[in-house]
Amino acid sequence: MRHRFARRLVRLAALSALAALALAAVGSARTDGTAVSGRITADGSSTVGPYVTAAAERFQRANKGAQVTVGISGTGGGFERFCKGETDLSNASRPIKQTEATICRTNGVKYAAFLVANDGISLVVNKENTWATCLTTDELKKIWDAGSKVDNWQDVRQGFPNVKLSLFGPGTDSGTFDFFTEKINGKSKRSRSDYSATEDDNVAVRGVTGERGGLAYFGLSYYEENQGQLKLVAVNSGGGCVTPNIKTVQAYTYKPLSRPLFVYVKRDSFRRGVVQAFIRYIIQNERAIAKTAKFVSLTDRQLSKSKYQYNQAIRIAKSG
Prior knowledge:
single chain, D-Maltodextrin-Binding Protein, domain 2, 2 domains
């Protein structure tokens, strides 16, 4: 027992030293204060898009010659463009899939991934919905699973009223769609198709606000931006009803719908000073950006990991 405890202490000490090294490394990579210039193109997740947009606005104010263009075509659509070499950055609400990585490799696109924020997928209903305060994961599967014919709230749970169920959610190119369907329905992309799908989460917000029986899912930031118009629904995965917030998302106690968010960077692009500076800016200002864009910030451990990843990418870029 003492030997196992000693080995654990050694591992913890090693991790602490590694994090300290990463912190020092990213600090030493700061510029001398000279503004950078150049253009950066990003595309991908509608969830991560607002975060990168907020970062870009702050970065461009500090670097008048820099221009960051952020598109929103969904995580899958973003990776499709990224792996063709069309963009510098790919914003993603899930890790890259093996099939996507293979396409990147075939096209000679090498990349680095950076964890930039945390998120909890929010379940929202119309403000006039007084009955659905918490849904179980089994009930969510009953609603959203492939082949589901549930179209009325009374079919979701005994005691719910006879109100038409109107569903809104992300399209099939969305990382949010992939993540939600995997966690709730058991397999990525396994979902009923007869719902109002969109890559613009603001459309889903408007859909729910216009339908008394509306139900939608999207990233936490979109709920926070529109919480005056929507009602947040708690999720019960077996341990009680939990709603997404900073504490539950960071601790991953909002199960099973807490997740990390990423920015993927093409290594050829990362050799350019403006791209290095932008990623460095995101990491160094992660908590301020997360607060501005209404995202859940990284934990200290996650932030140390991102700084270490940046340092590793710098070393690879310098080695050619």
